[in-house]
Design a protein that fits this description.
The chain contains twelve helices and 15 strands. The chain is of the alpha+beta class. A four-stranded antiparallel β-sheet has the order 8-9-13-11, with no helix packed on it. A four-stranded antiparallel β-sheet has the order 12-10-14-15, with no helix packed on it. Strands 3-4-5 form a three-stranded antiparallel β-sheet, with no helix packed on it. Helix 5 packs antiparallel against helix 7. It is elongated and about 100 Å long.
């Protein structure tokens, strides 16, 4: 039964989302936007906020991936992985173990702790899980975010439910643009007019549509109607009238897969080319009586090891401050340097930051 397969996928997906913030790689969370440092932690990599072009490239890859999946598999996301569908149906699944007269109320009650857990897990993607849970009732801001998210999530899964899928879901509208006759979708076989007319598919559909009249935007591809049709046709011993239909391997799918691969290669190339140590310098002002100019420098170390480097300037300019700089792992050091040019006049200066295994040259000029 497709229902059992969907439950397995839902449980695995839910477990991955809940446990991912607890997974640590190289001593850091596997997935979190760290608010204190304003940096993105992603499977061992750290992307500071001034390198968010990588996040934009990652978003471009996700857009390309979404387009490819939608063209090939239709609204499979909606019925199998969408949190709104998964949370609601998990509550129904557990409530089905209760006596029949308690199931409706039991589902409503179960969705309350489920929504709270989802709301709390969202906080874990911005603060360490232990810290977020410990400070939940100590910080008014944190508690406010938690309660607001809890309320919105509960309203979406318990009250709005499938009505959102039928009316306002932007992904459903995107599906209308991208899908074609070969996109994988739940469909009725119009070549077989001998439908049993049991209407089991309509009763099983969470969005209340009749799949027999054709593929519709409201369908979330959950396959509940396939299971209902299979049960109805098992007695007479005939094949179900409803099934997943479509062509996965085709020209359009290859085209979108190529775009997805190109976006992934651009992202990997950008991430691979990032230097571990970066050095920037700019003129800040005149040094006054010392007849020189003051330059502000910044050195950032994105590696997991401390870095020691020496700063120097091209002759005939002369550096008047200590050139040694030490930067901790994943740290940043800023400071000022006083540089005296030829006869004390301001001029273009070449700065060099040199350490073990790297040499960076930057140009700074009097504006």
């Amino acid at each position: 039964m497709w229902k059992n397969r969907r439950r397995i996928v839902a449980l695995l997906g839910g477990a991955a989302v809940l446990l991912l913030p607890f997974l640590r790689i190289r001593g850091r969370s596997a997935a979190r936007f760290d608010l204190p440092t304003l940096s993105l932690h992603f499977f061992g990599a750290v992307v500071p906020i001034d390198e968010f072009y990588l996040v934009l490239l990652g978003a471009l890859f996700l857009v390309a991936l979404t387009l490819w999946v939608t063209v090939v598999f239709g609204r499979l996301w909606c019925g199998w992985l969408c949190p709104q569908t998964v949370i609601r149906e998990t509550g129904e699944w557990i409530a089905s173990a209760l006596p029949a007269r308690y199931r409706r109320g039991g589902k409503t009650l179960l969705l309350l702790p489920f929504s709270a857990l989802v709301s709390l897990s969202l906080l874990w993607y911005f603060l360490p899980p232990a810290e977020a849970t410990r400070d939940l009732f100590r910080s008014p801001v944190l508690l406010g975010f938690f309660l607001s998210q809890w309320g919105v999530i509960y309203i979406m899964v318990a009250i709005v439910g499938p009505r959102f899928c039928k009316t306002a879901c932007p992904y459903a509208m995107l599906q209308n643009v991208l899908s074609d006759r070969e996109t994988l979708a739940v469909a009725y076989d119009p070549a077989r007019p001998e439908c049993l007319r049991c209407d089991g598919c309509i009763r099983a559909c969470p969005v209340g549509i009749d799949i027999r009249v054709g593929v519709q935007r409201e369908c979330i591809a959950c396959a509940s109607c396939i299971d209902a049709c299979r049960e109805a046709t098992a007695g007479p011993g005939i094949a179900p009238f409803i099934a997943y239909r479509g062509t996965v391997l085709r020209g359009k799918a290859y085209l979108f897969a190529g775009g997805c691969l190109a976006a992934a290669l651009v992202l990997l190339a950008a991430a691979w080319s990032r230097p571990d140590v970066r050095f920037a310098v700019q003129w800040e002002g005149k040094a006054g009586e010392r007849r020189g100019n003051v330059y502000r420098y910044s050195v950032r170390n994105d590696s997991d090891q401390p870095v020691a480097l020496a700063l120097s300037v091209e002759r005939p300019a002369r550096l008047l401050d200590d050139p040694e700089v030490a930067v901790p792992p994943r740290g940043r050091v800023t400071g000022t340097l006083t540089v005296q040019g030829r006869n004390g006049t301001p001029e273009e200066i070449l700065f060099t930051a040199e350490g073990r295994g790297f040499r960076i040259v930057r140009k700074a000029a009097f504006p």
